């Protein structure tokens, strides 16, 4: 599967469309393929749209490049990428990306462990190979 990078200001980024689903509800969402992210983190608005409650969920903490610590909670969901669906444990965070970017993040657990990923900045595209 190949996806074109998207332009944000003067920067091209590997942001791709995915579908997040839970118990028959689904949400179309954009995510940045982020090799520096340990987990897949989505905005808590996605969880709300899917009917996922944070009640009774254990919270965890993440630290961004600026050193700010943010709290999130984990929940199992199905993620569909280019027609390929699979189960992941995703994190949901208020104002993911500081509320500055209009996308979530897919990282090492739940994405990089599922695909071989080839970034081609010269062509502004990313290729996902061989779902595992």
Overview of the molecule:
The protein has 132 residues and is mainly beta. The protein has one domain: Acid Proteases (Cathepsin D, subunit A, domain 1), CATH 2.40.70.10. The protein has one helix and twelve strands. It has one helix spanning 44-50, and strands spanning 2-4, 6-8, 11-13, 15-22, 25-33, 41-43, 59-63, 69-81, 84-93, 104-106, 116-120, 125-129. Strands 4, 5, 6, 7, 8, 9 and 10 form a seven-stranded mixed β-sheet that branches. It is globular, with a radius of gyration of 14 Å. The two termini are 14 Å apart. The mean pLDDT is 92.
CATH-assigned homologous superfamily: Acid Proteases
**How do the helices and strands follow one another from N- to C-terminus?**
EEEEEEHEEEEEE
**CATH class assignment:** Mainly Beta
The averaged pLDDT comes out at 92
Number of strands: 12
Low-confidence stretches: none
Main sheet characteristics: 7 strands, mixed
Number of structurally distinct domains:
1
Structural class: mainly beta
Please tally the helical runs, counting DSSP H or I stretches of 4 or more residues. Answer: 1
Shape by Cα distribution: globular
**What gap, in angstroms, lies between the N and C termini?**
14 Å
CATH third-tier fold name: Cathepsin D, subunit A, domain 1
From the alpha carbons, calculate the radius of gyration and give it in angstroms: 14 Å
Percent of residues in helical segments? under 10%
Second CATH tier, the architecture: Beta Barrel
**Which range does the strand content fall in?**
over 45%
């Amino acid at each position: 599967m190949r996806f074109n990078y998207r332009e944000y200001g003067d920067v091209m980024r590997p942001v791709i469309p995915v579908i997040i689903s839970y118990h028959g509800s689904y949400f179309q969402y954009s995510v940045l393929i982020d090799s520096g992210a340990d987990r897949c983190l989505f905005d808590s608005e996605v969880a709300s749209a899917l009917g996922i409650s944070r009640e009774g969920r254990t919270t965890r903490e993440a630290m961004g490049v600026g050193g700010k610590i943010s709290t999130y909670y984990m929940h199992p969901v199905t993620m569909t990428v280019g027609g390929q669906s699979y189960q992941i444990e995703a994190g949901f965070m208020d104002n993911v990306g500081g509320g500055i970017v209009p996308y979530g993040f897919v990282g090492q657990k739940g994405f990089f462990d599922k695909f071989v990923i080839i970034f081609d900045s010269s062509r502004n595209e990313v290729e996902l190979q061989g779902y595992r």
